Amino acid sequence: MAQLPLPPGSTIGILGGGQLGRMLAAAASKLGFDVAVLEREADSPAGRVARELIVGAYEDEAALEKLAALASVVTYEFENVPAKSVEWLAARGIEVAPGPKALAVAQDRVAEKTFLNANGAPTVAFEAADTPEAAKAAVEKIGAPALMKTRREGYDGKGQRWVEHAADAARIFTELGSVPVILEAPADFVRELSIIAARGRDGATAVYPLAENHHEKGILRRSIAPAKASTKLQEQAERIAARVLAGLDYVGVIGIELFELKDGTLLVNEIAPRVHNTGHWTQDGCQVDQFEQHIRAVAGWPLGPTHAIAQVEMLNLLGAEVEDWRRFAAEPETRVHLYGKREPKPGRKMGHLNRVKPL
Question: Which of 63, 129, 167, 335 qualifies as a FRET site for 83, CA 20 to 30 Å off?
Answer without folding.
Answer: 129
